[in-house]
Amino acid sequence: MRLDKFLANMGYGSRKEVKKLLKTGAVRVNEEVIKDAKKHIAIEQDQVVVNGEEVEYKEFVYLMMNKPQGVISATEDAHEQTVVDLLELEDARYEPFPVGRLDKDTEGFVLLTNNGKLSHELLSPKKHVPKTYYARIQGKVTDDDIEKFKNGVTLDDGYKTKPGELVILKSDEVSEIELTITEGKFHQVKRMFQAVGKKVTYLKRLSIGPLLLDSTLDLGEYRELTEDEVEKLVNR
């Protein structure tokens, strides 16, 4: 790969900015100062150092975030804070984007990556990738609701959902449940409960496909997926 393209991909600015950077002598390849933007490097073998700091090349980045309420699942927004705004510069430079949406007032697992192919597969309705949510519900959730969700419920716009697996953790005036669904319609969990006459008061996503949200992550925190987790995601 050309050196200027490599550095631009790694977040060191536009090609034009990278050329200026190279002219200052700030870039070394295998300990030799390189000023030629057209120089080709072997990205897996060659050591590239910018201002004394080694550049570690990664084509793809995979991040698990525990999204707080009030933050939107987008890369940029003129008025709202986004999940990308919560990233450190060293991770943001890979230009990851959230895979699918998690409502502004919903907490929990958001996956961010710059791997468009994987993102497309995880979001494809044909792939039936399960997502599990924990929710608190205003009203008593019953076995009857379990049956209704198992058969799919009709939403306010007439759409009938695919089967959902509802588990009751606590049935009371305020119930606690876990729900696993394989599609991601707008406000789907809230609208499914609305369809059976109940209201979601708190919602958190716990898992995507084979991956569980890391319980050590506080709200707003994130970490890179381990190699094992990436493997599970890719080969699910």
UniProtKB/TrEMBL annotation:
All copies of domain RNA-binding S4, residue ranges: 1-60
EC number: 5.4.99.-
Tree of life domain: Bacteria
SMART domains per UniProt: S4
Matching InterPro entries: PsdUridine_s_RsuA/RluB/E/F_cat, PsdUridine_synth_cat_dom_sf, PsdUridine_synth_RsuA/RluA, PsdUridine_synth_RsuA/RluB/E/F, PsdUridine_synth_RsuA/RluB_CS, RsuA_PseudoU_synthase, S4_RNA-bd, S4_RNA-bd_sf
One annotated GO molecular function: RNA binding
Pfam families: PseudoU_synth_2, S4
Keyword annotations of the record: Isomerase, RNA-binding
Record-level GO BP terms: enzyme-directed rRNA pseudouridine synthesis
GO CC, alphabetical: cytosol
Family: Belongs to the pseudouridine synthase RsuA family.
Name of the protein: Pseudouridine synthase
Organism: Anaerobacillus alkalidiazotrophicus
